[in-house]
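Lay summary. Proteins are chains of building blocks that fold into shapes, and those shapes determine what they do. In this project we predict the shape from the chain. Here is one chain we studied, written as its sequence of building blocks.
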Amino acid sequence: NSVTSTHMISTHDDFLPLSPDCPLSHFSSPSSLLLLSLTLCLSLNPYLSLTLSLFLSLTLSVHLSLSLSISRSLCPSLALSVHLSL
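And here is the predicted shape, written in a compact code that computers can read:
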């Protein structure tokens, strides 16, 4: 009985991600850490996820308009043809 209980404890320790003897190799890269913290925050706060998605879409639209204006200033004939086709 004691053997099975220690076996259960050892396997349970193996599956704990924050046990001190377990190396956090899969959390070592900062991008995965950021993704993990983002996932935790999003699961905890749905309003934060809504705000974050709005912020991301706003950033994407600003980036798209900036790239469009840059391409328009770089090649005006292409922008003129696109404008005429629209």
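What the prediction tells us: Residues 59 and 66 are 10 Å apart (CA to CA).
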